[in-house]
Amino acid sequence: MDGVVGREQELSSVDAVLFAMGRGEFRALVLHGQAGIGKTRLLSELAHRASALGALVCWGSATEFERHVPFAVYRDAFAGVANVPGPDPATLLALDGEAGDPLPDVDRPRLFQQVRGLLKGLAAARPTVLVLDDLHWADRSAVELTGYLLRRPPAGGLLIAVAYRPAPAPAGVADAAFHLGPAASVIGLGPLTTADVDALLPGEPERRRRLLYLGSGGNPLYLRALAGAGDETLAQLAGTGDGQAAPERALLDVFCAELDRLDQELQHVARSAAVAGDPAALDLVAWIAERPEPQVASAVDDLDRLGVLTTTADSGLRFQHPLVRTAAYWRAGGGWRSRAHARAAEFLRIRHGPLQVVAHHTERSAHPGDAPAASILAEAGTACLHTAPTTAARLLRAALRIMPETPELAGRRVDLQLALARAVGVTGQLAESRALLQEVIQIDGRRRVEAVTFASVVCRLLGQFDEAKALLAGELARCRDDGRAAAHALVELAAVELARNEPVSAQRYGRRALLVTAATGDLALEAAACALLALGHLQLGRVGDAERCVDRGAWLVDGCGDAVVLPYLELVAPLAWVECHLQRYDAARRHLDRGMALAYRHGRSHGLPYLLITAAALHIRCGQPAAAVSVAAEAGELSRLIHGVETAAMATAVTLKPVLWRDGPRAAVKLAREIARGRRPRSGWWSGIVKLDLATVYLAAEDPTRCLAELSEPDPDHGPWRAEAAAYRSALCAVANAELERPGPARELADRALDQARTIGLSHQVAAARDARARVLARAGLVDEAAGEAVAAAAGYADAGAPAEEGRARHLAAELHAQAGQSDRARSELGQAKNLFAACDADWLNAALARTERQLAAMGPRRPGPARRQPSTVSGIDLLTGREREVVQLAAAGMTNREIAARLYLSQKTVEAHISRSFAKLGVQSRVALARRVFGAEADEAV
Questions:
Q1: For 720-735, what is each residue's pLDDT tens digit?
Q2: Calpha distance 483→242 (Å, rounded)
Q3: Under 8 Å between Cβ of 44 and 9
Q4: With bands split at pLDDT 50, 70 and 90, how would you rate the model's confidence at 715?
Q5: Is the pLDDT score of 788 beyond 80?
Q6: Each residue of 348-359: b (16+ CB within 10 Å) or e?
Q7: 874 pLDDT exceeds 60?
Q8: Burial of 324 per CB tally in 10 Å (0-12, 13-18, 19+)
């Protein structure tokens, strides 16, 4: 019987994804369906066709009884890749996890990036297919890696094909495939039809074919399993003849009955192979079976002929189907299985087999009080703490459960509790993590300090800043006599207070930390305190103080070795953030690069999102929206891995401005709505940053009312509008009021923004205030004065090294010069803006500029002719957008705003905004003047 029968449509999808892969594109193929429905058979056909096209096929299968061995499916997939040029040996080593390898510093983010880089390298050399079969049995970290690869697919001709049972489906994989859009093909395999069964079994009588179809439900595996059953058995399985497949338990019974018919020696070897794994090595099966290897090899040959086992290309042993292995495994008694796993662990331990596989067998054979077994489980759990924390948590729990309760092991037990708290904390099991940490916190010494620090980190990742403060304040009260512990608590408290938008309190803690570190000589802690003090000064608008603190902090960080900086790696993010806002871009970039390299190299995953978010902010300031979105997406992925809901919200929010510049207001508003539906950061400081960016998006989307709603004044003592953000807020409020035809408040707010910006003295803020004044003055019809402010804003943005915003200011200046009839100056500003936007890769900004460029071209000198009058001045009508022109024509014809809104299916506020902007562009202040300008311009065009 051929399992591909009846899958013509599915095979067509296979050919389509292989064709795209061959053209150098990324594709994903997701198969789901019940056991035996033909997923593996279809993947085999895919692999066969891919190989025929010259593609490299990496095939990995997850297995039922090794589902907790971390990355086993990837280890299986890359088993033959070591001999292929290109792969990073460190990646394969980390996945393999050989006993004794010092790999605990390789964490999930680094490993995931390494696997992504490995696949990218393979695909660059030749088209590559990664097949992951039976993914429903993969460990959680392997599933997370698969989701990561689908959400962040490597470039090149690569196909990732996964198959799983839908109940339960591997968490996140289907969702990741959905977001790939057309690059992913999702196929739900259903049962074969009666016609398919007839084609598969042409020699069977019609009645028997009917019984086989009803008993199997059209499932190919069940058809094969029932092919030898009698009519009575088939009739019993067919039941009422409703076409439903026989329950899996019934099929297991069929397989068990087939195994029971084998002689005792073959049954024994089959059970030994089921314990050994899938695939299994012949020598391991012989050891478990306690038989000579030649005798086992002969039995394997018999089992192969009987359709139970098959030999792979690399001499491994596989069962014909996972359900056959399940039947063999459970057919052995529990006591025998335990002893068999112990023999397997002993064999692998003697031969230095993979540590995680040794632990897999040890966990299934160890008993309470078994100190050597507890040591193996603890070693394996600690080794995968950063790469596979779910597996680490299970192994560490098992180690603690069987570890003897002896005084000499008390310290080791506390270490394992702390490691377990870390494992369950980063996997989102926060209640258990807190309970474990509370136990450790009661113990004096180094472990308590580590427990408090990690508890604070978990609280900050979750946005629980009040809880973090209470925890740290308690530690500070407890460790007054311990200088280093007190300094650490003070630095953590300063960081928490900054997040809570309490810069004054943060500076108090920061200054105390400096006093303590001066006595202890801890340079890295002093650098951290300096960086946090600098950020507090920046929030309060004290630029000179911020510069002095940054100078000291940067000098300390640059002078400290990696080993000194590593425990306080998060200090790099606030240091680089302040450097970015002080326009020290090279220093910020250098510190971020070093911090991220250290974080990836040493498994500091909880610090990476902060570094990446700061890097995204640096890309935004430097006019690199595509890079900002990419880096922020990476921060979001890493936050997902460590369950950092706060950093995930920050990573989403930081993309608002680059998405606006690149994709336009519609895409940015969609993102803004997602943020408004509960994805806002809880940090008071970041709340203010997000409000400014949301207001910017709504203003670009011609919704000044929503813009002002975001900027509404909060509690002045605890709100986000510190000196750092006040000028930006006033500037946005000024423009929004101008668009709502409130010239008085708009002018007042614009003047206030400039005063606030000048007080602080940063070029970017002054430029933002001048940009706002230009737009307010333009709305008031003061075109020449507005043009001067726009040019000054562009110069300020240039001084601040902000090319995207400089380009926007020059674009505005060009429009204003054109309105004033200064075409040459307008074209000069447009040319400079065009050059700036070309380097920024900002599609929406480029598109808007192109429209203005076309409008200016249309206003160029026309060749005189006998039937054409030359206007002595530029009317400005061509500067209007298509929608603005529709609105003003109806307004000039005498229609009210309500009538125009009904005619064009717009809101009245939108109509009002279009008319207000049109008044400014045309330099008119009444509808009568508007009518003259519109109909006069049209009359000129008609002549």
A1: 556 778 899 999 999 9
A2: 76
A3: no
A4: very low
A5: yes
A6: bbeeebbbbbbb
A7: no
A8: buried
Backbone angles phi, psi at 158, to 5 degrees: -135, 135
Nearest residue to 625 via CA among 809, 772, 844, 771: 844
> Cα separation of 300 and 527, whole Å?
65
Is residue 717 scored above 50 in pLDDT?
no
Of 441, 354, 305, the C-alpha closest to 96 is 354
- Closest by CA to 603, choosing from 376, 436, 384, 381, is 384
Using alpha carbons, list the distances in angstroms from residue 227 to 112, 204, 215, 486, 680. Answer: 45, 10, 11, 74, 59
Q: Which spans in 134-193 are helix H?
A: 140-151, 173-179
Cα 475 from Cα 485, distance rounded (Å): 8
- Judged by phi (left if over 0) then psi (alpha if -120 to 50, else beta), residue 907 lies in beta
Q: What is the largest CA-CA distance in the chain?
A: 110
Calpha distance 863→476 (Å, rounded): 82
Instruction: Compute the chain's Rg from CA coordinates.
Output: 34
Which tokens go with 157? Answer: 């001709």
More confident residue, 476 or 783: 783
Question: What tokens were used for 640?
Answer: 């997902």
Distance CA 714, CA 159 (A): 51
Pairing of the two strands 309-311 and 317-319? antiparallel
CA distance 224 to 216: 9
The whole-angstrom separation of Cα 700 and Cα 688 is: 19
Q: How far is CA 408 from CA 136, 442, 746, 810, 860, in A?
A: 42, 19, 74, 73, 90
Sorted by sequence, the CB contacts under 8 Å of residue 265 that are 6+ apart come out as 299
Token digits for 292?
């000579």
- Cα 768 versus chain centre, distance: 32
Q: How many Cβ atoms sit within 10 Å of the Cβ of residue 335?
A: 8
Beta strands at 26-32 and 309-311: parallel, antiparallel or unpaired: unpaired
343 SS3 class: helix
d(CA 828, CA 837): 14
Cα–Cα distance, 830 to 856 (Å, whole number) = 10
DSSP code per residue over 595-660:
HHHHHHHHT-GGGHHHHHHHHHHHHHHTT-HHHHHHHHHHHHHHHHHTT-HHHHHHHHHTTHHHHH
Residue 403 near residue 156, CB atoms below 8 Å = no
* Phi, psi (deg, nearest 5) at residue 885: -65, -40
How many helices and strands, by DSSP H and E, does the chain display?
49, 7
CB count, 10 Å around CB of 470?
A: 13
Residue-wise pLDDT for 525-536, tens only, equals: 889 899 999 999
- Please return the burial class of 9, using the count of CB atoms within 10 Å of its CB with bins 0-12, 13-18 and 19+: exposed
Amino acid at the residue 642? I
Per-residue burial over 396-409, b if 16 or more Cβ lie within 10 Å, else e, is bbbbbebbeeeeee
User: How do residues 457-470 score in pLDDT, each as one tens digit?
Assistant: 777 777 777 777 87
Side chain identity at residue 324, one-letter code: V
Phi first, then psi: what are they for 601, rounded to 5°? -75, -30
Q: How far is CA 217 from CA 188, 223, 247, 394, in A?
A: 16, 9, 10, 38
Q: Do 652 and 679 contact (CB within 8 A), yes or no?
A: yes
What whole-number distance in Å separates Cα of residue 109 and Cα of residue 607?
Answer: 11
Q: In which region does residue 36 sit, left (phi positive, over 0), alpha (psi from -120 to 50) or beta (all else)?
A: left
User: Could you tell me if 660 and 844 are in contact, meaning their C-beta atoms sit under 8 angstroms apart?
Assistant: yes
